[in-house]
Amino acid sequence: MPSRMLPEWTEQDAILLAWPHEASAWAPWMGAIEATYRNLAAAIARFQPLVVLCRDGDHAAATRAQLTLAGISPTRYRIAEQPFDDTWVRDYGPLARASDGQVELLDFRFNGWGGRHTAERDDGVNAGLAAAGWFATPLLEESRILEGGAVETDGTGTLLLTRRSQFSPGRNDDPDEASAEAWLTEKLGVDRVLWLEHGGLKGDDTDGHVDTLVRFADTTTLIHQHCDDPDDPHYDPLSALAAELTELRTADDQPYALHPLPWPRPQYDEQGERLPATYANFLLVNGGVIAPTYNDAADTEALAVLQRCFPDREVVGVDARTLLLQAGSVHCATMQLPRGALTPEPGED
C-alpha cells in the first residue's frame, strides 16, 4: 500500500493546542481568548485527550489552572513545555501520512504565512517535541514550506488546495503547477491534486487556505462555505467557487455530493475591519465534530448541515468570535495527532 496523507477522520491519539500567552498576539484580549480556549479544550476533552503547548513552566502552571477552571480532568490532557510564537498550531503542527498502518509525521517549514508574522519558534515546535520524546513515530524534516490549513485530503490519494495559497509570494518558488504537484505527490503520497481557483475571505491572511472554504466529509462529499447575500463582496467569489466544485470529479469520475454551509452575518474588529468568519473551519475528533459558531442566526443551520454530513458523530458548537480577532477559527487553532503518533504516558496502554 502506498504512503498516504491521513484524512482528519482517522482515529486520533490527541488534539494539539497551543495555549495563548502574554507574549503572543493575543496580549490585548487575554481574558477573552483564554475563555474561548477553555471552551474549546472542554469540548475536545469530551471526546479525546489534549496535548497543550506551554511556553515555559510558569505558563504551564497558569494553563493548568485554566484547564481546571474549564472542568477538565488532568487525566484528559498532557502539558508540553515548548517555546512558540503564536497559537495557530494547524499551520506549524506535524502533518501525518501512513503506509501499512505505520504513521510518519512530516515537519514542513513554517514562515508566518509568507513572512507576514514572526514564526521562528513556531517553526521549531515539532523538532522540539520530537527531541523531548513526545512522538512514538519518526518525524521527517522537510525543507519546503507547507501549512496544514492549506491542504485537505480524502485519504485515498486526492489532495484539495487553492492555487493562491500555494503560489503566493514568500512561500516556495515553484515555477509551475507541475512542479508543485510533483513534490506534493511525493511528500504527501497523493495521486492527484485538485486546484481551486476561486474563493477567499476578507480579513484572511493565509492567502485562501482551503480549510476556510472547502472540506471533505468523506471520499465523495464536499462541504463548502456559501454566501447567499448578493450585496456582500463574498457573493461573487464564493458563487464561482460553488460552480467550480460542481465540475470536480471523484477518483471514480463521479461528481461530488456538495453541501453548502450558510453565510454568517459580517463580523468586524474594533477598527471596523471585516473578519473571516466561516463555518468550514470545523475540527473532526474521535466521534465528534467541533464547529465554530458566531452568535449568529445561521449557527443553527450550520450545525445542522454538519450533522447531516457526519450522521455518526456528535456536533458541538464553540463560540469562535474571539478567535476571529486574529483571523482564525477552530480548525486553525488545533492539530490532530493520529493514532500511533504519541508516546504513551507511563501507565497508559
Automatic annotation (TrEMBL):
SUPFAM superfamilies: Pentein. InterPro entries: Peptidyl-Arg-deiminase_porph. One of its GO terms (molecular function) is protein-arginine deiminase activity. The keyword Hydrolase applies. It comes from the Bacteria. The keyword Hydrolase applies. Keywords: Hydrolase. One of its GO terms (biological process) is putrescine biosynthetic process. This is Agmatine deiminase.
